[in-house]
Amino acid sequence: MKKVLVLTLILFYNFNFSQNQQDIYNIIDNVSAERIQQDIQTLVDFGTRNTFSDTISETRGIGAARRWIKSEFDNISKNCDNCLEVFYQKDFVSKEGNSRVPHDAWVVNVVAIQKGTKYPNRYVIMSGDIDSRASNTMNFTIDAPGANDNASGMAGTIEAARVLSKYEFESSIVYVGLSGEEQGLFGGAGLAKYAKDNNWDIIGVLNNDMIGNIKGVDGVIDNRTFRIFSEPVPANETERQRTLRRFYGGEVDGISRQLARYIYKNTKTYMPEMNPMMVYRLDRFGRGGHHRPFNDLGFAGVRIMEAHENYTQQHQDIREENGIKYGDVIEHVNFGYAKKLTAVNAINLASLGWAPPAPKEVAIGGVVEPSAKFKWDKIEGANGYKIYWRDTTSPTWDNSRYVGDVTEFTLDGIVIDNYFFGIAAVGENGFESPVVFPNKVMR
Ligand SMILES: [Zn+2]
């Protein structure tokens, strides 16, 4: 009788997981390149979306663009029984003291929240940018179509909302169009502060900035590879945390890096045709993006983007010089690729949205012993836990062991000195939290 029960439970567990895995494949299939194309075209047709451009016109400028984005989110919400909370979140930016601000203005983000059924205060965020720029970022009247930078990320975010609004998630998913990116990451800073002030428990930020270009200035044409940028350790860590790291490790194991590894693994699992490329740095050399203001406040956040950029097609006035066509026009955007990167976002939002919270306290021990030992806090809603480990030189969590519903475990014969370790919580549905690097030592 007991055997039958155990077998039934295992079958139920497997059935549950394969059904949810099927949902992940359906999500990939439901992302539409045509809709992304239409939305990029609509955004391009606003002429310029410079943060300081016209806000009154119905057809041109950032005001018209953000009203259209809000109406799209509102329409999506109507089709899912009002499952989205849609609102503007804004902050005032003044010319004084800001060399790249031509005049005082409100920097307005458009936010759509799909509330979680079980953990409404836990948020996973997908962002794109509303704003665009031409050669001179201060010129807010000249055409700046910003088709790839960053109508692609914005359109991907809207499309992810369309697809995922057909499902319910345990944690909340936020779809957001940020503004003021090109002049100083104002919109991201505003929303990060809003999240902090409202005590959001942020699982992670997936910031999409340029997800549609496959022809690089380096001559490479590639519609499979994309980059995941992540900073190594939180920017706001304490001096004590920095000191402890010298002895216990963690130089490449901050929360944003774990989020990057999560996306890497999930992509490899469900979209094996893709080549996710983790880049071990905050962003491109000396350049920035809207995940950074979240990182500044200690939230996990990464930048997702194409692998091969084309600099003649970003931040450029539309013109022809010496036979080279400059400008971020829609002709250069590959919609099939933007669809794939949107799907990468969607499956990671879904997996994180369906996963239980990660343990907060993870202790590790086993100094001068033959086995590594672990202890962590019990997570309400987790069915079990997985211990991950890897060689110290490996970028990915290559080894794992599911240990069931316990809160301590000893990995026999695995010496603590030779690997890095982490713990993830696993839900009844099979979805996993990001891996947590140990933050306590047992002596
Ligand atoms: Zn840009």
From TrEMBL:
Residues 109-311 form the Peptidase M28 domain. Gene3D superfamilies: Immunoglobulins (2.60.40.10), Zn peptidases (3.40.630.10). InterPro entries: FN3_dom, FN3_sf, Ig-like_fold, M28_fam, Peptidase_M28. It is found in: Secreted. One of its GO terms (molecular function) is metalloexopeptidase activity. Its main location: secreted. It comes from the Bacteria. Keywords: Hydrolase, Metalloprotease, Protease, Secreted. One of its GO terms (cellular component) is extracellular region. GO terms for biological process: proteolysis. This is Peptidase family M28.
